[in-house]
Amino acid sequence: MNITERQQGAVTLAAGGLLMGTIGIFVEEARLGALTLVFFRCLFGFLALFAYCAWKGFFARRYFTRRTVVLAVVSGILMVTQWVWFFDAIHRTSIAVATVVFHVQPFWVVLIGAALFHERLGIDRLGWIATAFVGLVLASGVMASAGVQGHAGYLTGIAEALAGSVLYASVTLIAKSLGDMRPHLLTLAQCFVGVICLPFIAPLAAVHISPQQWFWVIGMGVLHTGLSYVLIYGALPRLTTPVIAVLLFVYPLTAIAIDALVYGRALSPLQLAGMALIVAASLGVNLGWPLLSVVLPDTRARAGRHAD
User: In angstroms, rounded to a whole number, what is the distance separating the alpha carbons of residues 70 and 178?
Assistant: First the structure.
């Protein structure tokens, strides 16, 4: 793999993250309930991904075994529920807060994976996970009196984003168990589950959607479920783990910047510190950084310098 391919992959993944970081605007400006938003995201996302998968010839028979279909349906139920909770969390808190809280999901992957597969976590990983959840408490804003007192809806939104991150972690583990199945097909199946199931939960007959709202809901499906996933899935095979670990934070950082610039809802210094802890912890877990060597100076090296 030459340097040009790696650079192209990095640009593509960053573009996908930037695009995903704008989804909060579509959620806010569509001014529809979370269930309705997710239904249309699933509908237009399904149409976009179906066209892409058909064009690329991904509908190979070997992907559609009984096991893969069952797992895809289960992941669809989890993913659609997660989308509903995440969108409702945006309505109850803000784009930035919901996105930051949601992005502790990599640590749930580690913990759930350890519980299911009896993997040994080690002191460093446990330390980074603890650091991430300290960052979560700070970033969520629940320590500020204005974020808690008399704001039960705010706390509900935090809980929804956190619960959604657990569901997304579960979907990630299911995706890993599907082997070489195209991730585009899994997302397509998840959208299909939403299109089939959500109308029974939230009938759409009484929902009035204006022409302006159609722009936002169609965009959410085509851009944030079609194009963004194509960009991200296309970039990942070209990149190394360290590059992926860093670039995945383009999404939450974009969401934070947009919330501040468009809606004037900037995170407080304490919340930004929490976000920094989550980023550091995520990099530490993904890159295998030894926690003590990051937090504490190298005492042996320091002792050697003093001896000199």
Answer: 11
Q: Measuring CA to CA, which residue among 216, 236, 235, 222 is closest to residue 51?
A: 222
CA nearest neighbour of 43 among 214, 182, 161? 214
Residue 202 DSSP code: S
> What is the rounded distance in angstroms from the CA atom of residue 33 to the CA atom of residue 39?
10
Task: Report the distance separating Cα 103 and Cα 17, nearest Å.
Answer: 13
What is this structure's pTM?
0.88
How would residue 300 be classed by pLDDT, with cut points 50, 70 and 90?
very low
pLDDT digit string (tens) for 215-253? 999 999 999 999 999 999 888 888 887 788 888 899 999
- Structural domain boundaries in the chain: 3-294
> How far lies 207's CA from each of 30, 36, 45, 49, 215, in Å?
12, 8, 20, 25, 16
